[in-house]
Every structure is written in C-alpha cells, then in structure tokens.
Design brief:
The structure holds 2 protein chains of 2 kinds. Chain A has strands at 3-5, 10-14, 19-21, 24-26, 31-38, 44-50, 56-58, 64-68, 73-78, 87-95, 102-105, 109-114. By secondary structure, chain A is mainly beta. In chain A, the strands form 3 sheets. In chain A, strands 2, 5, 6, 10, 11 and 12 form a 6-stranded mixed sheet that branches. Chain A has a 4-stranded antiparallel sheet with strand order 3-9-8-7, with no helix packed on it. Chain A is globular. Chain B is mainly beta. Chain B is globular, with a radius of gyration of 14 Å. Classes of the chains: A mainly beta, B mainly beta. Chains A and B meet through strand 5, strand 6, strand 10 and strand 11 of A and strand 4 and strand 10 of B.
Chain lengths: 115, 117
C-alpha cells in the first residue's frame, strides 16, 4: 500500500520568507507526484506535477518541487512567499499500474503568510 | 486512522449499468462533501459539492443526470454513475472537512477505480 506523509500541519511565515513543505511517500514502484493547493473558500487546484524526466519541476505562481527518488521525497519550495499564498497545500502520489493505480493524498499543510 | 471511508475501492461493470460509490465520514458529521474525478495522467477535477439535505452543486460540464449525488445523512454521500460507458472509466475520490474546527484538514477517501467494459 502507498502512503503520503506531510510533516508540518501548520506553517506560519512572514512575507518574503522562503518556503519548503515536506512530502514523503512510501511506494516501491513508479509514481506520479502532485502538489495541489486550496485557497480559502475555493477548491483544489493543481500547482505542479511530476511524471518523469527532470526531477525539478516548476509549477504555477513561482512554486517548484524536487523529486528525490532515493529519499522518497517531493518537497515543495518557493523562494519568497506572498500573503496571497496563504492556503492549504496537499501532496499526492499516484502509484501502481493500470486498474491498480491509486491516488493518495497527504493530510495537508496549512500555510499562513503574515503581511 | 482514516476519517473518510470510500467504498468500493475498485469496481468493474458492464456498459449500460449503474454504479454507486459511497463516501462516509467516520467520526464527524460532514454537511459538505466533495467529489473529484481524475483522468489518466491529469490532475484531479472537482465534479460536484454534495450538500446534506439539499441538491448538489455541480461544476460546469458535469452532467447532473449522469452523476447522481445524494447526501441523505450527515455522514454519507453517494455518487451514482448511471448508464455507465467506457469513457466513464476513471478514478473517483471524495473528501470532507471536519466542521467547526479551525484549520481542520481536508480528509480524502481512498478513492474508487471504476472500469466500465
């Protein structure tokens, strides 16, 4: 079975601070990796995804994530956060093949950016 | 442990039949639940918001008559795929948030893999 772990439930930063949200997964095979964001009062949006190729993935709004296979990690980063980045962030893993493929979400990290 | 339970985890059905997927909140009452669908190698798409005691709110482009949502109790929402066709084959996932708790995380079910033959 696959699982996803997000270590920080709530992160509070000041504007312009750098951000790194941890995501670790457990699955022995090939995986697709995602980061989703949910802004207050809105629904999930895809920030970025990794399927194959360059392990450093760039997404929308200046976010990026690095897939480190040896560490089973897919941490989300942003060099300088803004107040508008206040939201909930979810890491997700899609492992397995064919009909066994399953999408598993982490428990989420609430990011609060102080102006 | 899991706080949102989804059943079944996998279902195979014949074209033309209907399939019901259940989403239960295990230790809290969810007045709102969300249903998503994931297409192969694509991101999750919100299909509808299920509201207890009232009609579901569907996203643009989602057929209400095909994807019937019933939120009959505070702990159960069901998604019924009616007259399923092979193009309905997908991964369906529900989520709910514990109400009244500040910064309560969004809890996801484990999803249902639907294959229509």
């Amino acid at each position: 079975a696959q699982s996803v772990s997000q270590h920080n439930h709530h992160v509070i930063l000041s504007e312009a601070a750098s951000l790194e949200l941890g995501c670790n997964y457990s699955y022995g095979g090939t995986v697709n990796l995602f980061w989703y964001v949910q802004y207050p009062g809105q629904h999930l949006q895809l920030l970025l995804k990794y399927f194959s190729g360059d392990p450093l993935v760039k997404g929308i709004k200046g976010f990026e994530a690095e897939f480190i296979k040896s560490k089973f990690s897919f941490n989300l980063r942003k060099p300088s956060v803004q107040w508008s980045d206040t939201a909930e962030y979810f890491c997700a893993v899609n492992g397995g093949k064919g009909s066994a493929r399953q999408l598993t979400f982490g428990s989420g990290t609430q990011l609060t950016v102080l102006p | 442990g899991a706080v949102v339970s989804q059943h079944p985890s996998r279902v195979i059905c014949k074209s033309g039949t209907s399939v019901k997927i259940e989403c239960r909140s295990l230790d809290f009452q969810a007045t709102t639940m969300f249903w998503y669908r994931q297409f192969p190698k694509q991101s999750l798409m919100l299909m509808a918001t299920s509201n207890e005691g009232s009609k579901a709110t569907y996203e643009q482009g989602v057929e209400k008559d095909k994807f019937l949502i019933n939120h009959a109790s505070l702990t159960l929402s069901t998604l019924t795929v009616t007259s399923a066709h092979p193009e309905d084959s997908s991964f369906y996932i529900c989520s709910a948030r514990r109400p009244g708790v500040q910064n309560s995380p969004l809890h996801f079910g484990n999803g249902t893999r639907l294959t229509v033959t």
